[in-house]
Each structure stands twice: as C-alpha cells, then as structure tokens.
Amino acid sequence: MAEKRPKLAKIDPVWERICEEGREAVAQEPLLGGLIHSSLLHHPTMERALAYRFSLKLASGEMPEQLLREIADEAYAAAPELGQAARADLVAVYDRDPACHRFIQPILFFKGYQAVQAYRVGHWLYQRGRRDLAYFIQMRVSEVFGVDIHPGARLGKGIMIDHAHSIVIGETAVVGDNVSMLHSVTLGGTGKEDGDRHPKIGNGVLIGAGAKVLGNIHVGHCSRIAAGSVVLQDVPECSTVAGVPARVVGEAGCAQPSISMDHLLKP
C-alpha cells in the first residue's frame, strides 16, 4: 500500500491528504477511530466517502441509508463535476475559515460543507427530472443542517458557507464561483411572483452574516455585502454595499473579498 501513495497523490492530492490526516487523527484520538474509518479510511475515493456521509446524515424512517447511498453513488459516477466541486469547496473552506485547520474537518464536522455537497446531489437529480426525490433531499438537508437550498438553484465551485445556520437560497438564484457567505443569509424573492425571481451573485462575492438579497437583481463580481444589509437593487462590481436598504458605501477594498474575508468598512 505504501508504494501506491505517491502515485495516488499525483492523481488526487486532496483525497490523499484527507486520508493522511485521518490516520493521524486516529492515532491522536483512538475513540474517533470508528467514525474516521467508516467515514473516510474505509473508502477508496473521496466520492465514495461523500456518498457515505450523505446517506448517513440524511437517512430517516422515510428513506433508508442504503437507498440514499445508491443515489449518491449514481450521481458521483455519472457526474465527475460533482467531485471536482466538492474538492474546490473543501479547499475554499480550508483557505478562508480560520477555524478550519485540517481537510478532514469540513467532511466530518462542518454542516455548511456537508449541506452544500448534499445540495449538489439534489441539484443533479433536479436537472434530470427526478424532482420529487430532489425535493426530499432539500427537505432533509433543511431538517438536519438548517440550510434550505432549492435544488433548482445554481451554485458554482469554491463555495464557503461559514457556520451555515439559517441559510436560504431560492429556486432561481445563481451563485458564482468562489463565493463566501456567513450564517443567516437569504437569497430570496420579494413576493409571490413566479418565474426568474431570485438574485444572481457574481464570482468572488463576500456576503456578511444576516444579509438579505431579494429579487431578480445582480451582485457584481468581487463585491462585498455588509452584515445585516438588505439588498434590493443591483450591486456594481468591486464595490461594498451596506445598510437597510443597502447602498454603495465604497470600493470592495481588495481584489478577492471572498478570499480575504475582510468584513471591515474602511475610509
């Protein structure tokens, strides 16, 4: 087995690092050996491990673990982009969350990461017309993680949702790549209108805790939305908005707000 690890690292360095960290964690805390072996070390690939965690967390009396695992395995086998997005999300959490010190933490312990990966399986089902099953997954993700992402919403790669309590993302919302948001963020509508009614968030955007972005509006690339803001109009690129209702209060302050995670308003 030792001879294969350098080759595996070239193919999938993220998964190899996860396995190395898992072995170290078992040595440091043997009481977690069962959890880490069943969730990580027992599986040959990251996709298989994610499918196991998906089924374990979302299983209920209405839908057994085995069926959910088969659904997730099918999704990951048919759509390699799901695994690619999972790796990008994992690296994003590690890079941006100061509370994340190892790659194994999001997979095992962070509900924001786990909720996004479950959404991705539900979105895959939704795109293929299996909508009732996608809605079931949405319901279970909301019940288990407190994150309500409609399976019709479109999320890019490199998504980091910190703390992830009370996140709501509506059906026609679009979230670009490398977006960071904190807890209690809503990407919602403004009433009972049908059709395209939810926000479009550009790449590299940082959305502060408790911010509400409402309606079919556009938030430009690399902008910042201050905590507690209510955004009802388009946001220009590379700008900072704050207030209720939100207005432009300055530039974004850096090239990649979602990566710097700097929420302070500077003169």
Question: TL;DR of this structure?
Answer:
By secondary structure, the protein is an alpha/beta fold. Helices cover 44% and strands 15% of the residues.
Task: Outline the fold blueprint.
Blueprint: H1 5-11, H2 13-28, H3 33-41, H4 46-58, H5 65-78, H6 80-96, H7 104-109, H8 111-127, H9 131-145, E1 147-149, E2 154-155, E3 160-161, E4 167-169, E5 174-175, E6 180-181, E7 186-188, E8 200-201, E9 206-207, E10 212-214, E11 218-219, E12 224-225, E13 230-231, E14 239-243, E15 246-251, H10 257-260
Parallel strand pairs: 1-4, 2-5, 3-6, 4-7, 5-8, 6-9, 7-10, 8-11, 9-12, 10-13, 12-14
Antiparallel strand pairs: 14-15
Please list the strands of the largest sheet in the order they lie side by side: 3-6-9-12-14-15
Structural class: alpha/beta
- Parts with pLDDT < 50 across at least 5 consecutive residues: 1-9
Give the percentage of residues in beta strands: 15-25%
Main β-sheet: number of strands, strand sense, barrel status?
6 strands, mixed
Gyration radius from CA atoms, angstroms: 19 Å
Oligomer description:
single chain
User: Topology as H/E string?
Assistant: HHHHHHHHHEEEEEEEEEEEEEEEH
Number of helices: 10
Task: Please estimate the helix content.
Answer: 40-55%
Q: Could you say which overall geometry the principal axes of the C-alpha atoms support? A: globular
Terminal Cα separation, in Å? 57 Å
Number of strands: 15
Mean pLDDT: 94
Keywords: Acyltransferase, Amino-acid biosynthesis, Repeat, Transferase
Family: Belongs to the transferase hexapeptide repeat family.
Organism: Plastorhodobacter daqingensis
InterPro entries: Hexapep (IPR001451), Hexapep_transf_CS (IPR018357), LbH_SAT (IPR045304), Ser_AcTrfase_N (IPR010493), Ser_AcTrfase_N_sf (IPR042122), Ser_O-AcTrfase (IPR005881), Serine_acetyltransferase (IPR053376), Trimer_LpxA-like_sf (IPR011004)
